[in-house]
Amino acid sequence: MRSAMSFRRDTLTKPIFTLARGVLPAMSDTEREALEAGDVWWDADLFTGNPDWSKLLKVPQARLTAEEQAFLKGPVDELCAMLDEWKIFWEWRDLPQDVWHFVKREKFFGMIIPKEFGGLGFSPYAHSEVVRKISTRSIAAAVTVMVPNSLGPGELLMRFGTREQQQRWLPRLADGRDIPCFGLTSPEAGSDAASMVDTGIIRKGEFEGREVLGLRLNWHKRYITLGPVATLLGLAFKAYDPDHLVGDQEELGITVALIPTNLPGVEIGHRHLPSMQVFQNGPNRGRDVFIPLDYVIGGEARLGQGWKMLMTALAAGRGISLPSLSAAGAAFAARTTGAYARIREQFGISISKFEGVEEPLARIVATAYQLDAARRLTCSALNAGIHPAVISGIMKLHATERMRVAIDDAMDIHGGKAVIDGPQNYLGNLHRAVPVGITVEGANILTRNLIVFGQGAIRAHPHLLDEMNALADTDRERGLAAFDKAFWKHVGHSFRTLFRAFGRSWTFSAFASAPDTGDATPFYRQLSRYSAAFALCADMALLTLGGALKRKEMLSARFGDILSELYLLSAVLKRWQDEGRQKEDFAALEWCMATGFRTIENRLAEILANLPNRFVAIFLKLVVQPFGARVLGPSDRVVHQCASLVLEPSAARERLTPDLAEVDDNGGFARLERAFKLVAGTEAIAKRMRAAHVRDWKEAVTKGVITQAEGEQVAAARDAVTEVIEVDDFAPEALSPIYKKSSDVHQFFQELGEQRAAS
Questions:
Q1: 441 labelled catalytic
Q2: Strand, helix or coil at 298?
Q3: Which family does the record assign (predicted)?
Q4: The dihedral sign for the CA sequence 403, 409, 410, 412
Q5: pLDDT single digits (tens) 259-272
């Protein structure tokens, strides 16, 4: 046996090993550290081509503790009641002082900080639920709360800080004595952290009256959320040791440190205005700022480890904050757009009856269902201590992109109601905020084209990372032995995947593995088929293109889209199962599956049409897509049923849009909810009036079609609808300082007209 393995290694594997080492592209330190950060999870199962569905269904549902529920029903509801989004972004351009005091006092900034350090010690799911609820009331407040609990000093200190650092800083962050921010992006380096020019030179210097070994820092950062009000800045920079004060290496690499913003040389800039959003955001600089080495997070031992630390932290934070805000936005769009379509009439009928409205409304509804399913599943992993790096990237990318589509659809259906700004417009500011989510925490273009598949193919593939590590081993003999073992496992895996993909494609997945989940069982079979097709095509692309695949960004993006769909559709299936297979929700499940299958089949067809090796492409087409891309998307029946989920008060509507921030005020959202309930409650009365061809309720009472009490109900409903469809208008002097009063406007234009006539 041993001699046979030696023969295989020396005769077959060695030439392949030599060739592969010659073509393996160089990997930068930042790329390697990004790859090594975080964990793999369900994405690894999807990459096998044969996912174990029982493993997915056994994942515990994310749930709140009694303490976390009390926080949502107590301080979170109180905070929502204090928020007036119109005044925040139009009048004050900031959260009012009483809100700042409240979020500090109630420890909103310390949700993830353990109780031993004075924080709330909440789970990732509780963090997600808090952000989700606040997001439906105020984007500015949601961002303010989520940033200290996401990527920043708190998370980094908890994971990498020394005990002394944790004891010093975490209590201050938890109770709001310190407001944190994190400085990563600079004018020279956005997504390309390797281009960072911010520096820290190891020197001896004086700090607080004593000479210590430390860092002299110079930096310029921008787009820093909470930067203008922060008292503690987490800073990423490149550390250098030209005098070899801590070791033999001169360039130490990206490092992260804590910078109190009151230190000499720290310059806090003015505020940015990101897409007219007024959460605190701005630039800052440091000129010859000196800090001791124990301000480096993790101390001297962590010099040069900053990028890996950041990527590890991001693997968790990126899966919580923006996906929570996006899920909230989609749910809010579903609830408000369904209600508005139900009460708004054109041509004498509710616009919800128009198929042209049903189609985008169904898309909003299904998007809300899917995003919350994926949010919950991802939080389940995070609750279990898993930090799925690839899945977090998928979540950030697709949550924000799909929210963008949902909000655009909502704007289209609302028409002028959502276009005219004012206190009664409950969608306008959310629409303006969408580009911010698309851009931050990794630009979506970069994430889609380079990260999801580029990182996923290496981390989640069962053998590829082992092969790459073996090829990069400086000990050639040890590397050859490891490569021999991994490579032939990979070959066996590829052949199994080939036969699996062939069988499932030609039989339309009739015999693919699937759990017994009632009406959803065929969907599992289809996903098993697509997983095998994806795994086979990915292997063939990696085999034929090698390192060149890294530069084929459009191919990489298409593979990433398939992997993303496999994960998101898995989440939808799990949600439907976890919620007891609700029949009313099946239309949303069907819409998601049909749309996802269409995307997968189209992306497979695009990959096969553009794969450079045409022989391999033709072969793969015969194996994985012999009959072409056949899924057309959701049927008209499914679209109609999906849209109808939010057109009447029902348990399904509540499951789809749970626990939004409904404040009993006279705001636009509250008015809409009241009108919706009144219109739905008088539908039977209105139906009798239509049958009698009577529109005026008083006439209907006179003719005996309805009673006086019923007529008054109809009148109340119509008054409520009128109140909703009204839009805000403003006196000229309220909008422009040019005019002191309305008459000034008329006088100005009258004089202008006279001047033109005279000329």
A1: yes
A2: coil
A3: Belongs to the acyl-CoA dehydrogenase family.
A4: positive
A5: 999 999 999 999 99
